[in-house]
Design goal:
alpha+beta
Amino acid sequence: MVGRLAPYKNAQSTVPANLRHYAQVAAVQDTKPPVALFGLDGTYASALYTAAAKTSSLDSTSKSLAALSDVFKKDDKLSAILSAPTLTAGDKSQIVQELQRQMGGTDRGDTIKNFLQTLSENNRLSILEGVCEKFTTLMGAARGEMELTVTSAGKLESKMLQRIEAAVAKSEYSQGKKLKVVAKVNPDIKGGLLVEIGDRTIDLSVSSRIAKMNKLLTDTL
């Protein structure tokens, strides 16, 4: 495949040449990612979006990544396995084959197969989970959605998530867009909620309140 990662010139120093080669980015407006993402996983997700858009396989690519995202949710050891520095070429090949099997035939035109091989060759399988999340963000933006991430110390009931979604939808934070709720669990926040929408963060976590109290005590003493 021939092309350059033109929309991401500032990130080219961190992106291997074969990923830029893989992206096949041409100056076609409708193949460009709808929003700019940051981080290495964001750069890879953006390159994948462009490649999928050029081959009219965005929907199938999205389904494949959703299937892979579910694998991460079911197997909490997968991230550690993909990050292991001792993985051999044979190990990576087996992992890629197993990930392909988990997608259940949703990969149109081998877009994800080729992408997984690219990650493997560049020793970047460890960012796959992040790529899945970032690609979801891109697809939501392409549909005119805005992602609403709600992080709690424990799993929230659907009714609570619906109440939060309704409250944010009525606020200026939603900008009148359809919200896509993403629920995350992080025991480190100890309690309360961490709500993120667009570039806004509403920190209602217990850990944040404890940090503020500790700072106040430190400054006072």
